[in-house]
Amino acid sequence: MLTVWGRRTSSNVQALMWCIGELGLPYRRHDVGHRYGGNDTPAFLQMNPNGTVPVLRDGDGDPIWETGAILRYLATRYGADSFWPRDLITRTNVDKWAEWAKLNIALNFTGPVFWHVVRTAPQDRNPALLAQALDVLGCKLDIAEQRLASHPFLAGDAFTPADIQLGHILYRYFSVDISRSDRPALRRYYDGLNERPAYREHVMVSYEELAARP
Ligand SMILES: N[C@@H](CCC(=O)N[C@@H](CS)C(=O)NCC(=O)O)C(=O)O
């Protein structure tokens, strides 16, 4: 049995839960972080000195933190070859795109864009800063667009952790109040993710509770 510490509204928890859902693994999850608290207790900090979510334990194994490391653990332990290839070269291609998506898409979206338009009170927002952040993100999304125009999934022909690292922020990207350039391949890809039950359950989650009030 897997145990997850982390609230449903955390994007990193969503990536992990989506992975668990895709792999069909049994789990229990504790709401921790943000308004639920519980991530600054000695017991939690002993598991993760960063005080961040998610944290995963598989049975009574050591706690694992850092979403990318957790995804690699689950993929290696429980994933089929198409999800996390045993062949080093093929797997490194998946890992490369997963790392790229986390560093270039998720990190350029979550702080500079999502926090800015959802978790910052309207009077504190800075349109020039947001425009700059959208430009930076847009350059990276153009790379995803190019890739997805010729491949059904980010790393190639199969759904892999690279899609989790890219796709887990797309629900928010496509639903927050920002301007979006036309990227038909990315939109088609996102529409496909919407058809996946685990995506609908774990990623398409209201972020209302995170919204800053004026
Ligand atoms: N690099 C870490 C980042 C973890 C992180 O920053 N988590 C956020 C939620 S997405 C957090 O714990 N925020 C504090 C809170 O929820 O109270 C990872 O990829 O897992």
UniProtKB/TrEMBL annotation:
Signal peptide start and end residues: none
Question: Which InterPro entries does the record match to this protein?
Answer: Glutathione-S-Trfase_C-like, Glutathione-S-Trfase_C_sf, Glutathione_S-Trfase, Glutathione_S-Trfase_N, GST_C, Thioredoxin-like_sf
- Coiled coil, from the record: none
Keywords from UniProt, A to Z, are: Transferase
Q: Which PROSITE patterns match?
A: GST_CTER, GST_NTER
Keyword Transcription regulation tagged? no
> Which parts of the sequence belong to the GST N-terminal domain?
1-82
Domain GST C-terminal span(s) in chain numbering: 87-214
Care to name a GO molecular-function term for this sequence? transferase activity
Q: Which Pfam families match?
A: GST_C, GST_N
Q: Gene3D superfamilies in the record, alphabetically?
A: 1.20.1050.10, Glutaredoxin (3.40.30.10)
**What family does the database annotate?**
Belongs to the GST superfamily.
Q: What is the name of the protein in this document?
A: Glutathione S-transferase
Source species of the chain: Bordetella genomosp. 11
